[in-house]
Amino acid sequence: MSSLSSQLSQRIETVTGTDPELRPATKPQFGHFQSNVALRLAKQEGVNPRDVAARIVADLDLDDLCETPEIAGPGFINFRLRSGVLAATVTAQLADPRAGIPHTSKPQRVIIDYSSPNVAKQMHVGHLRTTIIGDCFNRVLTALGHTVIPQNHLGDWGRQFGMLIEQIADEHLDLTILDLAGAEALYRRANAHLASDEGFAARARARVVALQSGDPETLAAWHRLIEISLAGFNATYARMNVLLTDDDIAGESSYNEMLPAIAGDLEARGVATMDNGALVVFAEGFEAPAIIRNSAGGYGYDITDLAAIRHRVDTLHADRIIYVTDARQHHHFELLFAVARMAGYLPAGVVAEHVGYGMVLGADGTPIKTRDGGTVPLESLLDAAEEHASPQIALSAIKYADLSNSLQKDYVFDAERMTRTIGDTGPYLQYAHSRCAGILGEARARGIDSAGIEVLAEPTEQELALWLTRFGETVQVVADELTPHKLCIYLFELATKFSSFYEKCPVLKSEGAVRASRLGLVAATKQVLATGLDLLGIEAPERM
Ligand code: ARG
User: Fold this and answer.
1) Which of 79, 254, 368, 500 is most buried, taking the most CB atoms under 10 A from its CB?
2) What pTM was estimated for this model as a whole?
3) pLDDT at position 269, please?
């Protein structure tokens, strides 16, 4: 079902022949929407805008939708939806388990590459954002009826495993008792060792070769490091209440076998060329080439991502591929897409997008760091927020803070501010939801029925109702543009409109059809808040 404003807009356009560019009215006495279409047409024709407005109003047949439109000022046209139409629309939305979210007419298979932490390293603050944002995209696109295939592009391959496994051998480390924090400590020791000991560096290189050639003992240690890391990642995912499961893991190593064939294919077709001993692809508009195979014969990040694209297009049949990483990888993905298009691995019909996000800043406004200058583990951010609130509320605070600004912006991690239950925060929206739940619970306890919405006389009732009907179109915009902050803005505005309504309009103290209608508005607000918060990955408790 199309939203009320777009229905209205289409009806006006058939008369005027041009988009009426409906704007929300600035004051209740101006109705619900205003259009300047008469002013624009009058200017073209060189006639009086009020005359044009009068002609349009005479030609319009909107009786089933609106009151008679009014002409205002120099020639604006004001539209007021019939309150019966508003009431019926919200009532229908309340009965819809999807709360008015449209079902897409073109379902797509959408790959979302997100989270993607690295083995033997704890998830750090950078992985906070990709995990929260990717998960939100997952929920929003799924809600519209798309098939979402998450891909956790785990960093589970590379030269670092040479030094890690060699260090394990040196220390006779017992891998059965190691955990992810222990693996990360091992990583640091191996790194220091590598820098200070030539002999160790040589053995680490030999270990990479042993890993690549499938030496059983080396492979076993590598497997164990992955297992340990996954246990740690899964604990964090559970704590963050995200949708990712082990089924979504497609680590870098899963593409190993495809790499020689891809390099061969690109070279044979002349897409890739030799450059100082390395096999590379130069793409138009990019200074540096993509590295297909380095001069030592090794494969790296670029070609692995090319292989991932082939897998996603050919095997997973992607229509749209979305990558969520920090903004600093933007160039990598732009080059990747260009090379994949040149190579014919990414057909014109498949959309590929990189969503780059800004940094998480500390209180001092610079990228957040530990006291000794290291990267902050994600878990410690969750701990910090939990110092101010219960886990459920702390998590909502973090997710909302992460999603409520446009993604490209950096934001300050201020655990105290974001856990507040007033202001533009996740806990505030949870609180608004629990308030609705409280009112409805009270009504139930008193045996009061909230059958349907019939009367919407008060301006705050109408404004709330109209805003409720705009939920579906908002979700659609968020999916098209990948802008979760627009859903946050919508929900915050909903909570604000609900507050004004609740201040002006007694619910349980009113009677008859007025009370039933107001209860219906409360129920519809609760439904949209719960559904909207769920799309952000935030739980909506009944009580707080
Ligand atoms: N593992 C990488 C990191 O932690 C992110 C991988 C992103 N996905 C991709 N297909 N390259 O920075």
Assistant:
1) 79
2) 0.95
3) 98
Nearest to 192 by CA among 172, 219, 164: 164
What count of other Cβ atoms lies within 10 Å of the Cβ of residue 142? 16
> Which pLDDT score, from 0 to 100, does residue 373 have?
86
Element spanning 503, H or E: helix 484-504
How high is the pLDDT of residue 2? Answer: 65
Cβ–Cβ < 8 Å for 5, 33: yes
Tell me which residue of 379, 367, 383, 371 sits closest to 180, measured CA to CA.
Answer: 379
Q: What's the pLDDT at 1?
A: 44
Residue 126, CA distances (Å) to 248, 376, 422 in order = 20, 9, 27
Question: Are 291 and 302 a contacting pair, CB within 8 Å?
Answer: yes
User: Domains (ranges, CATH) in the chain?
Assistant: 4-81 (3.30.1360.70), 158-244 (no CATH), 426-535 (1.10.730.10)
Instruction: Please state, as a whole number, how many other Cβ atoms lie within 10 Å of the Cβ of residue 473.
Output: 18
3-class SS of residue 100: coil
Best probe residue, ligand 1, of 115, 128, 236, 325 (max atoms within 8 Å of C-beta):
325
Ligand 1: lining residues by beta carbon, under 6 Å: 113, 116-118, 153, 155, 305, 308, 323, 325
Which residue of 153, 229, 306, 323 sits with most ligand 1 atoms within 8 Å of its CB, as the best mutation to test the pocket? 153
DSSP alpha helix (H) spans, 256-300:
259-268
- Tell me the average pLDDT of the chain: 96
Cβ–Cβ < 8 Å for 135, 242? yes
Comparing 109 with 371, the larger pLDDT belongs to: 109
Pairing of strands 147-151, 273-275: unpaired
> Closest ligand 1 atom, CA of 325?
7
Residues 6+ apart with CB under 8 A from 370: 376, 380
